[in-house]
Amino acid sequence: MVFCWDEAILKAPDVGPARVNFLLRSLEALSRNLESLGHRLVVRQGPPESVIPAVAREVDASAVFTNRDYEPYAVARDERVRAALNEQGIAFRSHKDSVIHEEREVLTRTGTVFSVFTPYSRAWKLLPVPAPVPRLGPPKAPAPPVASLPLPSGGEALGHPLAQHLFPAGERAGLEALDTFLEARVFGYDHGRNVLSEIPGTSQVSPHLRFGTLGIRTVLSRLHSARSRATTAASLKSCDTWLSELIWREFYIQILTNHPRVASGAFRPEYNQIQWQGSDAQFDAWCSGQTGYPIVDAAMRCLNATGWMHNRLRMIVAMFLTKDLMVSWQRGERYFMRTLVDGDLAANNGGWQWSAGCGTDAAPYFRIFNPVTQGEKCDPEGAFVRRWVPELVGTPSDSIQEPWARPLLLARSGYVPPIVQHDVQRGRCLVMFKAVKGAAAAPSIPNEETQE
Ligand SMILES: Cc1cc2nc3c(=O)[nH]c(=O)nc-3n(C[C@H](O)[C@H](O)[C@H](O)COP(=O)(O)OP(=O)(O)OC[C@H]3O[C@@H](n4cnc5c(N)ncnc54)[C@H](O)[C@@H]3O)c2cc1C
Question: What residues flank ligand 1, with Cβ below 6 Å?
Answer without folding.
Answer: 193, 202-206, 209-210, 245-246, 248-249, 252, 311, 314-315, 318, 336, 340, 342-344, 347-348, 350-352, 355, 452
